[in-house]
Amino acid sequence: MLRPKLPGLPTLRKALGPQLRLLPVVVILGLTSAALEGVGIGLIIPMLSIIAGQGDTPDMGGISAAFQQVGSGLGEGQRLLFISAIILALITLKNVLAFSNTVLTTFIYGKASHSIRSALSEQLLKVGFPFFLQQSPGRLLNIISNESWRASDAIQTALAAMVNMSAAVILLAFLVFLSWEMTLLVALGLALVQLAHAALSASLKAPSRSVTSRNSELASRMLHLVHAGRLIRIFGQEAKEQAVFDAASDAVRRAGLVLQVRQGALPPLTEVLHAVLFLGAVVGAWHAGVSFPVIVAFVVLLYRLQPHMRALQMSWSQLQGWSGSLEEVRWLLDPSDKPQPPQGAAAFHGLSRQMKFDDVTFRYPGSDSGAAVLRSASFEIRGGRSTAIIGRSGAGKTTIVNLLCRFVEPDAGVILVDDMPLNEIDPTQWRSRIALASQDLELVDGTILDNIAYGSDLATVIDAQRAAKMAEADEFIMNLPQGYQTIVGYRGVNLSAGQRQRIALARALARDPDILILDEATNAVDGLSEAAIVETLKLRANRRTTIVISHHRSTISFCDDVVVLGGGRIKSAASLAKLASLSMDELYEHETSDKG
Ligand SMILES: Nc1ncnc2c1ncn2[C@@H]1O[C@H](COP(=O)(O)OP(=O)(O)OP(=O)(O)O)[C@@H](O)[C@H]1O
Question: What is the pTM of this model?
Answer without folding.
Answer: 0.77
